[in-house]
Amino acid sequence: MGYAHEYAHAVLHRGRVPMEPTDHVVNWADGPRRGKYYPDAEAFALPDTEDLADVPIAPGLLPGAGGGPGTGARPGFDLPLLSAMLKDSYGLTGRRLGVQANTDLAGLPYYHHANWSRGTAGGGGLYPVSVHWASGPSGPLTPGLHHYDVQRHALQRLLTGDVTDRVREALGPDAPDGALDTDQYLVLGVKYWQNSFKYNSFCFHVVCTDLGTLVQTWRIWAAARGLRLAPALWFDEPALNGLLGVPGEEEAVFAVVPLRWDGPRAEGARVPRADPRHRPAVRHRDVERSRVLLDFPQVRAMHRATLEGATARPAPDALAAAAALADAVPTDAADGDVRVPLPAPAFPDTGVRRALRERRSSFGRFDARRKVSAEHLSAVLAACAGTRLAGDGDPAGKHRLARLYAFVNHVEGIGQGAYAYDPDRGDLRPVVTGPQGPFLQENYFLANYNLEQAGAVLVPTVRTTAVLGAVGDRGYRLAVATAGAVAQGFYLAASALGLGAGVALGFDNVSYAERLGLTGGDEAPLLVMALGHERPGPADFRHEIA
Q1: Could you give phi then psi for residue 107, rounded to 5 degrees?
Q2: CA–CA separation, 131 vs 230, rounded Å?
Q3: What is the pLDDT of residues 196-208, one digit of tens each?
Q4: What is the value of pTM for the model shown?
Q5: CA separation for the pair 171, 86 (Å, rounded)
Q6: Are 441 and 519 in contact (CB under 8 A)?
Q7: Tens digit of each residue's pLDDT (9 = 90 or more) over 499-514
Q8: Are 45 and 152 in contact (CB under 8 A)?
Q9: In the chain, how long is the greatest CA-to-CA distance?
Q10: First-to-last CA distance in the chain?
């Protein structure tokens, strides 16, 4: 077994055996920026697309439920559409000033402690995955490599010239269908220090989650407009790191997302021809804010472990052996095979942009006095269970990697207890009966959520070790990114239904495995996702910037 198995075990047991270094203290005053900073790179403002018609989010959340994309369906991306997707997903859209139970509340009114909102959730704050756009001759700009500046919603040109052949070369001849038939790519990177300064050795797990939330935002956003996006996670990573000019053990490319392009070409643009004897690379360097950067051996070890086999793309059905079990609940479950039927899942005509703009973490604002309807619970469960990244190892999106469990506190017509969700039958199977509030709160590490007040707490599990066994250590990125994708789908489903939501990483994973009867298998509970109505009339201050 590779190192990823050891790391996965440490993450699963960190609630009982803290990960090294146990004496790490976050130096907030010397923290990194919340985005990359290229002071000398030329910047271009992206088009303002606030007048772009919104489209219903339902086709993105329940792609197999029929109905098809809305009237805004497109054959491919153009510059305004790409600008809108970037803004809605990772661009800053407002300032968080609501009164809630998180520990940062006291500092929110001060500008240097400001907390900005965006459509995509992040593990513990705005520590973004870096987004680069490699654009070839079919694009609207002079071909080159651009960095998306989330603070200004602008592109910064890092390299001039068509380097998309380098991206295609890195993807390899066995890249998924369509990946080699374009010259437009979004290249996603992770700068470990932007996260490890806070999470130390746990960083690698968190950044994989962040990768999944962003990719799933794009997949939902695109599906609502009739477009399909799928990430490539297997490629020649050192080659793309070299193109971006980044040191692999400190910053690395985690995914490549090909774009089908249908926009106008740049008028009169001369495409620089690369000399085959010369392989250009970005010379601009990100300027780090922190004066002291710490090194975490487990993060470096995971980087090296997941780098091995990076070009050995899994076979199309490689993930079949790691798919979520059809029935992971023991036959001696609390109520035998008695199941609780759920209404058919459905979503209102809420727009995808509106759902992204209204997404937020509830942070202690749940109110049990108003129960969640069974219809709403069914819709959220179906959206989460339908999550697929549909990339390497499963290009057709046939294999469900995540399984859903629900701890029901206050849901109309459903008794309190822990249940396994069966997405094929659309029902719940009891695992443990009775109130679950005390268990939920006792096994949550922080004080920013009142989990007993939530209508339900959903728990996605992934057979992490099975994924590693099927596709190697690099599969850790895929397994945990899938959990992140489930979390983003959960947030957007809740937002579309007008419900409060919150996702957390800080809980005793082993206690949940024991509670759900999973200790004899390989399912790993990776997140807790609280769903419910919030208290009416909360203290807030509207501060939209988009």
Answers
A1: -90, -10
A2: 15
A3: 999 999 999 999 9
A4: 0.95
A5: 23
A6: no
A7: 999 999 999 999 999 9
A8: yes
A9: 71
A10: 48
